[in-house]
Structures are given as C-alpha cells and as structure tokens.
Amino acid sequence: AGENGKPVTVEGEDGTVITGADPLQGWTRQADGVWALTNWTGAYKSPDLKQGDDRATPGNLLFVDDEPMDFVRTRAELAPGTWTTEPPRGGRARTILLAPLPGVDPGRVPVEISEVRPAVTAVKFNCIRKLHVTRSGIGIIGMGNVVEDNTVDWSNGGCIGFSGTHHVVRRNQLLWGVGGLLGYGGSDLLFENNRIAYCGWRNIPDTGPAKIIPAAIDNVLRNNEECFNAGNGLWYDTNNEGNLFEGNVCHDNVGNGFM
Prior knowledge:
By secondary structure, the protein is mainly beta. It has no helices and 29 strands. The two termini are 35 Å apart.
C-alpha cells in the first residue's frame, strides 16, 4: 500500500502481459475420443451457472489454443469445443475432461484454466498502469487507487471489480469479460474514457458491461463507450445517491443502454 501523495505504482513496459490462468499439461486420449487430465489440484469453482451467486463466482474458464471452451455438466454432454470435470474421489484432485475442436491435439497446443481470483489488486493509494491482464481481472479495494491505460480481457468475472472510495479508473479497455465493470457499493469513483466491449458473453444473470450493486454514492461516469455486449450498458442498482452520468455512449448492446 502507498500513502496519500506517495502512491505505489506498477507500470508495465510495452508487451507486459499478466495472466490469471495456469497451464494444463499431461493429457491422455481415451477410447471415446475424450481427452483426460487426471489429478488436477488447482482451485476449482464450478462454472455451472445454476450454482451459487454467479455474478460473484462465475467459475473457471478453460482455453485451448487461446479459444474458450464451453462448460457442460456431464461427460455425456461433451461435444467438440466443450469440457467438464469429474468430482474428486477422496482428497481434492479432479479429472478434467475435454472434447477439443476437430483436429486439435491438446498435447500439442497450449491449454490453460483460469482461476477465480484477480490477477492484480489495487489496495490503497496504488497506481496500476499500462498492463495487459488476461484470463483474469483487476480488483480495486480500499481507497485512493488509480487504474489507467490497461487492457483487461477474458476475465472469468468482472474485468474490473471495485469497492471502497476515491478511486480513478480511466482509459482502460475491458474486453470479452464475463462482466465488464462490477461494483460493490463504493463512493467517489471517477470512471472515464473507458471502453467496455464484448462482455457478458456467458449470459450470467445481472452481469454485462457495468453493474453496480447497491448504494453507490457520488460516482462520476463520463465519456465511456459500452458496445457489443450481452446485457445492459450501464446498470446502477438501488439506494444510489449523488451519481453523475455524462457523455457516455451505449450502442449495439443486447439490453438497455442505461438502467
């Protein structure tokens, strides 16, 4: 953590990429054409959208050769481009089952699974700048943080999630996230000149480009673009007070522009 007027800054050089995914190696092809990875002990959160609060814990994402695979509940539902897991038989080790797209050998291309946690967290008087964060998101808590000029994509939750007070979030690209901006209350947020695009693609209830829940106070959302998302453009929930929205453009979203 930094101090007021003396922030701790993390700034990426050109090409800096931080990933929230772990590689998966050691696949074996089974008789029915399904590939299996046994004894995986990573942090697992079911991607089944019927379990728990999907907005907060949407589950792991699995990528094969940089392409996201769809999660299914059972082995019987596996089809090309899907994956599932078998529950542990004692202990916490799981078996991951994968049906890749035709012609793809998971032993010869990168396979990664994202974990449900932010790859980067701004805590107090931090400045996070010029990073490319992929397969995860940026968390903002505490007070007095600045998050600017970053690209965040393919997050398995919100590309940026915030709580706390007196934060500045500007000139970021939030792309292909399960959610774009997710806020949990919070006050005195300046969110300006950001672009949120292609988010909400898993169609989880109450997510999309920007969802703030609830009791947001004295936020300023200015000159942002929300486009090509599944869900509502800017969605503020209940018990809000003193928030200002100006110069935002919401277009080509599945839901309402503003709610």
